[in-house]
Amino acid sequence: MARHKIEVKRGSILKTLGKLLGYMFHYYKGRLILVLCCIAVTAVAGISSSIFLELLVDDVITPGLELGYDAVKDQLYTIIGIMGGIYVFALVCSFVYNRTMAVVTQGFLKHVREDMFNNMQKLPIRYFDTNTHGDIMSYYTNDVDALRQLISQSIPQVTYSAVAMITLLVSMLQSSIWLTLVVLAGVGIMVLVTKLVGGKSAKYFVRQQNSVGTAEGYVEEMLTGQKVIKVFCHEEAAKRDFDKVNDELFVNTDKANKYGNILMPAIMHIGHVLFVVVAIVGGLLVLYGAKNLNFSGMTEVITMGSIIAFLNMSRQFTLNIGQVSMQVNSVVMAIAGAERIFGFLDQKPETDEGYVTLVNAVIDDNGNILRESPTRTGRWAWRHPHKADGSVTYQELKGDIRLVDVDFGYVPEKIVLHDVTLYAKPGQKIAFVGATGAGKTTITNLINRFYDIADGKIRYDGININKIRKADLRRSLGMVLQDTNLFTGTIMDNIRYGKLDASDDECVAAAKLANAHDFITRLPDGYNTMLTGDGSNLSQGQKQLLSIARAAVANPPVLILDEATSSIDTRTEYPVQKGMDALMEGRTVFVIAHRLSTIQNSDAIMVLDHGRIIERGNHEQLIAQKGVYYQLYTGAFELE
User: Fold this and answer.
1) Ramachandran angles phi, psi of 136, nearest 5°
2) What is the mean pLDDT of residues 202-225?
3) Cβ distance 497 to 491 under 8 Å?
4) How far is residue 371's CA from residue 351's CA, in Å, rounded to a whole number?
5) What are the pLDDT digits (tens) for 572-631?
6) DSSP letters along 290-316, please?
7) What region, left, alpha or beta, does residue 371 occupy, with left being phi > 0 and alpha being psi -120 to 50 degrees?
8) Which of 257, 274, 338, 456 could form a disulfide with 186 if both were Cys (CB 3.0 to 4.6 A apart)?
9) Do 410 and 398 meet the contact criterion of CB atoms below 8 Å apart?
10) Is the dihedral of CA 278, 281, 283, 286 positive or negative?
11) What is the DSSP letter of 408?
12) Rounded to 10 degrees, what is the CA torsion of 298, 304, 310, 312?
């Protein structure tokens, strides 16, 4: 199985982040602008304390020591009042942006999950055949959760720190260029440490994200195949394989967190040393009466208030660098998750160039289509617009299917069906017989257009199926598979799955036709019995009868039965076969079966071998030929 592994490269981080931000602005442009404004106000307000600290020392405290309290009290009250007003306003902005980001985060993740699920419904069957279900589930859980951390914490924190650092840098340069150069030298060391240590942690956090998807995919496979594991006593081997996957996840997580936990303490200790160095340099400048240099040029001797304010600004500067470094791992994990999500969203949907549609029609007794009907009539027709002259013709839906010289391969270089030609007239029953891998199910997948043929033609009521819109094509086909899939809900809901607008009476009629009504009425809640866990509270035969009822309520003219009775015992097979016989009445039917007793009444039996039809005819004709079918029927050799 393919797994969507991501290695985040340096150049792709900004590209993915930009794509993510553009995605967010698409849904929440106004609110995000409000958040940015509030963050900027909050960041600048947090820095203003350093400016007011300088004013307090130089304009209030120092003069107050000489002149007394009364001389400076008005100045003191003014500064405190202004600071209080700024902090109250910043508090309001902080509340607004935190509350708004909570709404934006959860709303955006809701949109992401909706977009992923909507896109998933459009993907071809091939995608699900080549990717583990657990890894796909990981997109909705781990990767989306990584985005939550990024949007709710990392982006606001990085934005806050960026605004704060720019404002602090301007303020420090205005205060003292000499001391700012000292701070920038320390910042250079911080950046180098962040690059070395953060780069390693980022690499392993990306690998951790991939390992989580791999582990979830493996666990999902093991849960699905639990009975197979037990029946073949494969528990120890399964545990060994899981240990390998789990050990890889452990190693990647351990190294990611080891480097991640080193980074913040390292940055903070460099910040502490830098604070001491700035204090020493500032003290020496004051002690020796050195002239200060700022944006205004050379000024008078640097003041004690300037030194105290600068120390506070340098501490805030390094703290913000530390805050940014703390977010590196979350950002990289989120980018890895975002790339996986965008990779999933960028998967090409199932293409559909079909333009022939299925419509309700009014048809007379002679089979002439009188008109298209906006309401349900119980009769269907293909609406075929012709591009050449703009005309529209109608063809009654009868269930005539023909394959002509069909070749197909799941991959282009390996053809699995060779020159397959067959026809099924309306109401005929066509059976496929052959060993596993002979191509029986592949043919039915081509009729459904789960895959497109490499060469040849498939015609449905004389129309090339490539011209028929896929949704309409599949609506005209019913399928009963060997593996039944029931969904959480009532029995009535599961029958109605075949036709969502079916009434309760129609569902009951379908259950009676499928021979399922009797067992349903014996259940405690009848048709309102709740099913969970893929119908684990029902027997295999009962689940198969519900699957037949689901196909019956859809009332399709063409029916595909893919080994529908192979997983049930011969006693249970009787009511299931009886239900299928009733369902097949008057329909074109394709049957795949290993039990030859179930297909003897077929109009035609196709014997396949390695993707080729090697024999064809009804039961009596094939027995008379005494070929492969005769040997299979008489037990001369097994299908497998």
Assistant:
1) -65, -40
2) 77
3) no
4) 30
5) 566 667 767 777 788 898 988 777 777 888 899 999 998 999 999 999 999 999 888 888
6) PEEEETTEEEEEPPHHHHHHHHHHHHH
7) beta
8) 274
9) no
10) negative
11) E
12) -170
CATH 3.40.50.300 residue ranges of the chain are: 401-634
Q: Give the model confidence (pLDDT) of 133-176 as tens digits.
A: 777 888 888 888 888 888 888 888 888 888 888 888 888 888 78
Cα distance between residue 602 and residue 596, in whole Å: 10
Residue 195: both structure tokens together: 């690059």
Q: What stretch(es) of the chain map to CATH 1.20.1560.10?
A: 10-342
Distance (Å, whole) CA 549 – CA 36: 57
Comparing CA positions, the residue from 481, 457, 441 lying closest to residue 401 is: 457
Binning the chain into helix, strand and coil, the percentages to the nearest 5 are 60, 15, 20
| Interacting residues of 430 by C-beta distance below 8 A, sequence separation 6+ | 422, 424, 588, 589, 590, 591, 602, 603, 604, 605, 606
Name residue 591's beta-bridge partners. Answer: 431, 561
Q: Does domain 10-342 have CATH number 1.10.760.10?
A: no
The residue to which tokens 């050990």 are assigned: 247
8 Å CB contact between 139 and 340: yes
β-sheet with 429-434: strand ranges across: 477-481, 558-562, 588-592, 429-434, 604-609, 612-617
Provide the 10 A C-beta neighbour count for residue 486: 21
State the Cα–Cα distance between residues 565 and 11, nearest whole angstrom: 55
Structure tokens at 91: 């508090």
CB-count burial class (<10 Å; 0-12, 13-18, 19+) for 590: buried
- The fold for domain 401-634 equals Rossmann fold (3.40.50)
pLDDT digits (tens, 9 = 90+) for 279-321: 888 888 877 777 777 766 566 667 777 777 788 888 888 888 8
